Amino acid sequence: MGASGLSAADSFGPNLARQDGELYYLEQFIPAAEADHWLETLLAGLAWRTESIVVAGRAVPVPRLVCWYGDAEAHYRYAGVDHAPEPWTPGLALLRQRVESRCARRFNSVLGNLYRDGEDAMGWHADREPELGPWPFIASLSFGAERRFDLRHNRSREILNLPLAHGGLLLMGGMLQHHWRHRVPRQPGIRAPRINLTFRAILPPP
Ligand SMILES: O=C(O)CCC(=O)C(=O)O
Ligand SMILES: [Fe+2]
């Protein structure tokens, strides 16, 4: 068993990171017709809002919409902002169950990102806030437009590109957040929206 707790018996396929972390992609984790239903349900039913981060003393809106759901205690500091979660919707609770049983992992929260079109994006970052624990395990579920997901190794600068498709589940674990950054780049030709749900386990404050 690796540091992430993923056991060799789990059938996630090859580790796409190969070194310094664990990265698995399960294509069509949610079959296409069902994924269509989720895309509509989540677009219409979640509390999407704009969020600003402070850059050089100024509030700058991030180029996407976000939402945050979870168990009541799962507060999360993200980009310098404290998020109290909204309570689970029935749909998100169902998706959480599906993801949990596939990963044999528990999650107490989910960060949603809505990329309205190819102009929306997320810059290079790692998800390594202390409340995610020493080896953050994140399950990332995508619906809607296929978007490119890039990873860059901090030291070697090796780049990996993965297309994240409708219904696909990406798993990040082990030392991945310590050694790699990731992003969702702008893809100006894309007109359709994409929703990404990152299921996370937030530890209680020390
Ligand atoms: O949209 C994605 O696929 C990635 C989202 C992400 O990296 C994050 O929420 O931390
Ligand atoms: Fe991330």
UniProtKB/TrEMBL annotation:
The keyword Oxidoreductase applies. This is Alkylated DNA repair dioxygenase AlkB. One of its GO terms (biological process) is DNA alkylation repair. Keywords: Dioxygenase, DNA damage, DNA repair, Iron, Magnesium, Metal-binding, Oxidoreductase. One of its GO terms (molecular function) is dioxygenase activity. It comes from the Bacteria. Residues 106-203 form the Fe2OG dioxygenase domain. Its cofactor is Fe(2+).
